[in-house]
Automatic annotation (TrEMBL):
One of its GO terms (molecular function) is metal ion binding. PANTHER family: CONSERVED PROTEIN. This is TIGR03083 family protein. Transmembrane segments: none annotated. It comes from the Bacteria. Residues 28-135 form the Mycothiol-dependent maleylpyruvate isomerase metal-binding domain. Residues 147-239 form the MDMPI C-terminal domain. It comes from Haloechinothrix alba. It holds the Pfam family MDMPI_C. GO terms for cellular component: plasma membrane.
Length: 250
């Protein structure tokens, strides 16, 4: 996806998230985020948007270190103010991204063609995943557009999973192929004692995981049970996935 498409996704997903949260109310539990209620989710994503927007708008070369994302806001909103507070942070982030020059120079924490592309992509998927979370609080099973889901799988597998802090390892080494049945995307993961390496290709693998782009996206982001996917071969990596591939704040 290009930057404009990612920003458009961020915009639409944020509007959907706010609409559902407003309908539910702050006190409803969020099943896909154990221990959280809608209030906690809005505080988190509203803080993340402000944090990311500040990095982009100020062209910051160093990260803003916060114990919690919402710590960027001096005064936290009451329950009645939460949705409006979220919407303002969302709007400010969209403005920062749209006003940023293509050659923006600022801090980013994953490899990307440009810092602007990184932030547009990261915030599009941060917001998409949490939109699905809010919909789970409404009793629904969120779905993600195939092209958006495919891009998000690529960010997760190509960006987050190979980082040293991700605890996905195997001894002896093993491999896993991830395939989307509707968009034809392919990734091949090589998992050993060191960092995971990823190829954007198909090939023989000890484990083959396949499903629609939306289902694969949600399952790999731990928002859908992995048993919902088609699995051939060893299930060892998948059994360990929910505990070893978890993207946390900080």
């Amino acid at each position: 996806m290009d930057v404009s498409g990612l920003i458009a996704t961020l915009e639409s997903e944020g509007h959907s998230l706010a609409h559902t949260a407003e309908r539910l109310g702050a006190g409803v539990e969020v099943p896909t985020c154990p221990g959280w209620r809608v209030r906690d989710l809005l505080l988190h994503i509203g803080g993340v948007h402000r944090w990311a927007g500040t990095v982009v708008a100020e062209s910051r070369r160093e990260p803003l270190h916060l114990e919690r994302a919402e710590g960027i806001s001096a005064h936290l909103p009451t329950d009645g103010e939460l949705v409006g507070w979220f919407r303002r942070g969302h709007a400010d982030l969209l403005k920062a991204l749209r006003n940023a020059p293509e050659d923006l120079r600022c801090w980013a924490f994953l490899t990307a063609p440009t810092p602007l592309a990184f932030w547009a992509r990261r915030q599009a998927h941060e917001t998409t995943v949490h939109r699905v979370d809010v919909e789970s609080a409404a009793g629904g099973v969120g779905r993600v557009e195939p092209h958006v889901a495919t891009d998000g799988i690529d960010e997760l597998l190509g960006g987050f999973v190979p980082r040293a802090r991700t605890g996905l390892h195997s001894d002896p080494p093993t491999s896993m192929s991830v395939r989307t049945t509707d968009t034809g995307a392919r990734w091949l993961l090589h998992v050993g004692r060191g960092p995971v390496t990823v190829e954007r290709s198909s090939g023989p693998a000890d484990t083959v995981v396949s499903g629609t782009a939306s289902d694969v996206y949600l399952a790999l982001w731990n928002r859908l049970p992995l048993r919902e996917l088609d699995v051939a071969g060893s299930e060892e990596l998948l059994l360990r996935w929910p505990e070893t591939v978890r993207i946390r704040w900080g």
